[in-house]
Amino acid sequence: MVKRILQGIVVLLVIAVVGVVFALEPIAKFMIEREGSKQVGARVDVDSVDISFYPTHVALNGLTVANPQEPMRNLIESETVSADVDAKALFKMQVIADQVVLSGLQMYTARSTPGTLDGSMPPPKEESGSSIPSIALPDANALLAEEKATIQAEVTEIQNGFAEIESRWKTKSEKLPDQSQFDQYKVRWKELKNKNVIERIAGAKELRDDIKAELRQFENLNEDLKTDSAAIKSLSLRAANLPADQSKRMLSKYGLDQGTEGMLRFLLGDEVNTVVQRGLSLYQETMGNMASEEEAPANDEPAAELPVNILIRKILIDGYQVIGGEKLAYSGEINDVTDKQDYWNKPITMALRGGMEQKSQLVIDGIFDQRNDTLKSVFNMGLKQLALSGVSLSQSPDLPLQLEKGIADIAANFSIDGDNLKGSVEGLVDQAKLLVANVTSDNKTATLLAAALKDVTKLVMDMSVNGTVDQPAIKLKSNLDSILGDVLGAELKSQLGEVEDKLKTKLSADYGPQIASFQEKQGMLSQYQDLLGDREAALQALMKELM
């Protein structure tokens, strides 16, 4: 996304400079917003534009870029984006600068109006699947309807696996030596018996060599038969386990697979997924796209002096994020930004430092390296003694769990090699006070939870993220799991068991005939095994006759 934004800004800077040259400054702001919005796919707004020459300095004041995926939020908001740029390169659609300044930067800020291009309101968010046991868990039929394409893809893959093996052996069987081939060998042997000794010996050797070659073919076929028999057994097992495996996968996807060990994840629902996916989306749209090389469009223009589109030695950043009602200020830099890292033979590096009223320390370091074909990234974040207040942990209307106050220490480490993802987040909140707000007397479960959390003064969370950038697998555990589990465990397990049983039953009903047909294919190679045995035995008998 940042690459698209930056490319869009390149276009806007050119428009702005041309506008000033031709005394069209009154329409520069309009052109910037219009063209920027086209580039991003969401609203781009700027309060004003300042341009001066010799050297060429461009500043965009009051820049906001809406998030195409979340129209009621801004992807970025910056008080000023400014740089001394190479004017000649700028007209060639290149950003060449020693330094770019992003001042007053904020990310994911709320908007008062939709950021969609047509100004329409986004559809309301679907209700989260998280809830407490006084409310029904996700409906099995709804889960199956949502996951139908994925389940059918698994069934089709199993079906294709059987079909490929069957087709392969049909072709192989047609190439096996048949009775007519055996008859030819017998005719050759019969003719050799009537020849002199020397011719008979030479001919018999040649005949034996031909038969041995056939037998070696059977050795290979028997090995192939063992391999494909194992593959059929594996496919049959996948088919037999499909209801149970798909039920488990769906429960895992919705954070319902950890039982009482993942109780906090269950209560937080989509909040954890949203935070992780938001970070990964930002990574994909910034460093992922920035590092990907694009073919330059063919044209008759002279080649650019530098073989890059973006070349920025340093981006200076200062900004803040509002956390728990307080401003966490930060500043730092991103170095050696280019769309072709082999130009400098350096990775892109990032370093940010910050704090909140000198009482907390934020440290962020990152390396984004694509000097080889695969983008490798390492990202570390440490946050110490961060004072939190009024932080909502759960948006569930039945259990609005809130961290009323606490002092947080957070350490996050992520590494990405291509699409492979591995990361962890460890969080400790001391002096914590947890609050279950607006508990009604008729909600017995929420009342019990509120009482159980009343004396908690420490919150410990451990999250692991694995899998791929597109499909991260998230596990979240905390010291609250056992506390919440004591209250919710038995009832939750019972309801989860019911949902899982319903999923298995429905899957068995919907895909039972196909699963049964797959099981019937377990013996599909037996006819080929018999065929191989019979023909190999016939060749062995003929070989003995030649001895």
TrEMBL record:
Region Disordered: which residues? 113-132
Which residues are in coiled coils? 194-228
Q: Which UniProt keywords apply?
A: Coiled coil
Q: What is this protein called?
A: TIGR03545 family protein
Database matches in NCBIfam families: TIGR03545 family protein
Which InterPro entries does its entry note?
A: CHP03545
| Organism, scientific name | Zhongshania marina
